[in-house]
Amino acid sequence: MGSANSSEVAYLPGTVTRSVKLLVAGPFGVGKTTFVGSVSEIKPLRTEETITEASVGVDDLAGLPAKTSTTVAMDFGRRTFGGVALYLFGTPGQHRFLPMWDELARGALGALVLVDTRRLDHSDEILSAVEKRGLPYTVAVNEFEGARRYPPEEIREALDLAPTTPLTVCDARDQSSSAKALIVLVEHLTSRRDLLA
To answer: For residue 43, what pLDDT is reported?
Structure first.
């Protein structure tokens, strides 16, 4: 598999027989762009813009002192596992961009929701948006450096996750870690037969 850092064009392998659209969702600043960039085998499409004064009072930058840019439409990447090509659509995290979700979610089979333990309360709106659209999903805690670690049962309770919703951890900067979180979603969809339909 090629990587986003490769200068070669990464065409689909001849073994790919199925393609699937998935969302990578989460609140503002949780690491969606980083996740898609690290796990994608092609150079990802990014729609990032510099945060300007127009964001003051609109986007909650609390706890995100180093955040200087934001996704204004979507991120896009691709990862293949065996005979399945996963097309990854990273959603914007701010409330003002939620109307775009209807288009981004159209045709998606599921979603990987990234959360940050430093700002778990910011995940409620995103989880509601995924559930409202009837998408099966898994949750991955993006473990930021210096963030406090919590037992899975405490995170599950704080997010009010159903017992059947898979919960995992990842480092969105790391390709292997991100791929493992993606595999949890694929296995969840396969167990529900969403990937077999």
So the answer is: 84
Interacting residues of 6 by C-beta distance below 8 A, sequence separation 6+: none
Q: Euclidean distance between the first and final Cα of the chain, in Å?
A: 26
How many CA atoms does the CB half-sphere of 170 hold within 13 Å? 31
Q: Which residues contact 119 (CB under 8 A, 6 or more apart)?
A: 27, 29, 30, 62, 63
Buried b (16+ CB within 10 A) or exposed e, 50-67: eeeeebeeebbbeebeee
**Distant-in-sequence, close-in-space partners of 171: CB < 8 Å, separation ≥ 6:** 142, 143, 177, 178
Environment class of 193 (CB within 10 Å of its CB; exposed 0-12, middle 13-18, buried 19+): exposed
Q: Cβ distance 90 to 74 under 8 Å? A: yes
pTM score of the predicted model: 0.80
pLDDT digits (tens, 9 = 90+) for 54-65: 554 545 555 555
Summarize pLDDT for 38-51 with one digit per residue, the tens. 999 988 866 565 55
Structure-derived torsion over alpha carbons of residues 37, 40, 42, 46, reported in degrees to the nearest 10: -30
